[in-house]
Design goal:
It contains 10 helices and 6 strands. It is α/β, with parallel strands linked by helices and 203 residues long. The chain has 2 domains: 133 residues, Rossmann fold, CATH 3.40.50.2300; 62 residues, Arc Repressor Mutant, subunit A, CATH 1.10.10.10. A 6-stranded parallel beta sheet has the order 2-1-3-4-5-6, with helices on both faces. Helix 5 links the parallel strand 5 and strand 6. It is elongated and about 50 Å long. The N and C termini lie far apart (37 Å).
Length: 203
């Protein structure tokens, strides 16, 4: 069972999210916080698998809070659940360690899929945000924190098995990530991938 901590100051929304999570069959709400301070206090006693984190809290910026939580509890996965859909905010949240980003008007199924996906150590962007992040030109290519680490290893000349060992992932997973990187950067092969990474200062 995936444990979930909801952090949002809108009580009606929190109640709805709690029902959604608790009725999912695979996740359970173990804590609810209406402020950033309350969230940090509760985390000091018990850490969930996933935090649904609002960006606009009364006492904290969710962007800063995300960074603090990931520094203290790196194993906790964070999904930003917010009404903000600006590219710069999405990028800041992901760079600060969020594994997912979901808009509040997303379908309930997307919210649940987000929880499941990040709990499986993958990155999740709801449809609207995924479209936003892929709409930019190649010069503004966006990479997840994990893709950046993988790209750095590739640039450093490590093989897939060596990268898998360093990133504590299966070789097949690294193969899939490498294919995604080639596709994302529109590179024919590893040599082109490395050249693009260095030219665009992606590592």
């Amino acid at each position: 069972m995936i444990t979930v901590h909801i952090v949002d100051d809108h009580k009606i929304l929190v109640e709805g999210l709690q029902k959604l999570v608790d009725n999912s069959g695979f996740a359970q709400t173990t804590a609810v916080s209406y402020t950033g301070e309350d969230c940090l206090w509760k985390l000091s006693f018990k850490q969930p698998h996933v935090i649904l984190l609002d960006i606009n809290l009364p006492d904290w910026s969710g962007i800063d809070l995300c960074s603090v939580i990931k520094e203290k509890y790196p194993q906790v996965k964070i999904v930003a659940l917010t009404s903000y859909s600006e590219y710069s905010i999405v990028r800041q949240m992901l760079e600060n360690g969020a594994s997912g980003y979901v808009i509040k008007n997303a379908m309930p199924e997307e919210i649940l899929l987000g929880i499941q996906t990040v709990a499986d150590n993958e990155t999740f962007l709801c449809e609207e945000i995924d479209f936003l992040m892929n709409k930019r030109s190649v010069e503004q290519v966006w990479l997840t924190p994990r893709e950046k680490i993988l790209l750095q290893h590739i640039v450093n000349g490590y093989t897939n098995p060596e990268i898998a060992e360093q990133m504590l992932l299966a070789v097949d997973t690294i193969n899939n990530y490498r294919k995604k990187l080639l596709c994302k950067l529109n590179a024919r092969n590893t040599a082109v991938l490395v050249r693009i990474a260095l030219e665009q200062k992606l590592v």
